[in-house]
Amino acid sequence: MKEATSPSTESSISTPSSPASEATITHTSSPASSSTTVTAAPSPALTSTTLAPSPSTTVNIPSPSATEDIPTTTTTTMYEYESIMTFDQPMIMGYDPSGSSSSYTTPSSASGAVVKKKKSIKSETSIDLRGPLEVDGSVKSMASIKFDGDFAVRDRVEAYGDVGVHGTLNCSSRMKSMGNVKINGNATFGDKVKIFGKLKINGSLEVNGDLEVWGALTVNGYLKCRNLTVHASLTTVDSSWYEAESETVHGAKLVQRSGYVG
């Protein structure tokens, strides 16, 4: 006796496709198993796209007119900053009309000589000045400064060496010296005075500010200041005297008698 077997069943499904692609699905089934075969045509190759460059844009930048001021770069010298001249705070170069309360006196000559005028005086060597002279700026030297005659200085006086005054000096600002200062005559300053060497006064010195001397101070005449600070000794000669709102002397206070015979 023979078994009856069922015929296998095969179905074919075809889907329409675009000209660029084709897919065929064949399904075969039997009582024991069924299989499905999917055949797909390869996808069309990608087409390259070329991007056209965008149109360029031209920007016209106007050039400065002939009458327009173009700023120039200036070179700053060592005198502008004065960093090594100051150990406590920087000092800006230039005259401030509202920064000083003292008056500015024009020098006069007893002999009737013409008073010379200068804007400012700066040198890397020693300066030897002859008065009468009026300086509208500052007097600065990398060495020593000597004033011989009558002088009026509107801005500061600074020297890396000694400063000598032989005559009259009226300074509306401050003074700073890295060396010794010797005054043979009269000197007036509108702001503080700082001396890193010795100070010897053979005449008078008036400071409308603080006076600080790191070396010995000798007064043979008259001294007036606001606050006096002496880091060494203070000596007054004969009947000389000084006046200050406050004083600090770290060394000895001495009185010298010129006619004393011991």
From TrEMBL:
Q: What spans are recorded as compositionally biased (Low complexity)?
A: 1-59, 97-114
Name the domain of life this protein comes from.
Eukaryota
Q: What is this protein called?
A: Polymer-forming cytoskeletal protein
- Organism equals Podospora pseudopauciseta
Q: Where is this region: Disordered?
A: 1-74, 97-117
